[in-house]
Design a protein that fits this description.
- With 181 residues, the protein is of the alpha+beta class.
- The protein has one domain.
- The protein is built from 2 helices and 7 strands; from the N terminus they run βββαββαββ.
- It is globular.
Amino acid sequence: MSPNINIDLKDSEAKAPGGGKRVFDAGWYRCMIVDSDYKPNKAETGYVIHLEFGHLDEPYRGGKFKDFINAVHVKEQVQEIGRSTLKALAIAVELPNPDMVEKTEDLHNKPLMVRLDQEEDDRWGLQNRVTGYLSLAGFEKEGHAAGPDPTATVRHKGGNGAAPASAPYDNNTQPLEDVPF
C-alpha cells in the first residue's frame, strides 16, 4: 500500500525535470513579449531589460523563451549594441515612435517575428539565442520562411560561464560574435 502524502500543488507550475527549459528549433517564429523587467546587471555596471516571449503559433504555441538587452552599460560598445537592439525591437513591434521606449510594457502583446538560433555552451548546455527581430510586414516583405530552419546548425560557445550577450539586430541571420563584457 502506498503512503498518503497529501501535497497541495495548486500553486505549483508543472515543469519537466532539469528546470523544464525547452530549446526551440532554429528559425523564424511569430511571437509577442508577454513579460519584461528592467534591473541592474549582476556586475552592477549597467541595467538590463529582461524580456519573456511567447510563441503564437503551433506547434510551439504557449512555449516561452527569454532575451536580455543591455540598455545602460559603462562600456560604450555594449550600451550601443543594446540600444540598437532595443530600437530594432521597437520597430518590429511597430511602436508609434521607435526612437523612444518609455516603459518595457509598451513592447508587450504586439506580434512580431523573432529569429531563434541554437547555441551549445559548456556551462549552460543547449539554449536558444535571439538573432533577429522583424515586424510582421517586414518579415513578409523580405520573404523569409516561418518555422524551423532545416539548414540551421548549432553554434558552440566556450564555457566561460557568461550569459549570452545581446547582439545587434540588423536583420542578418548569420551568427554574430559575442561582445566582450
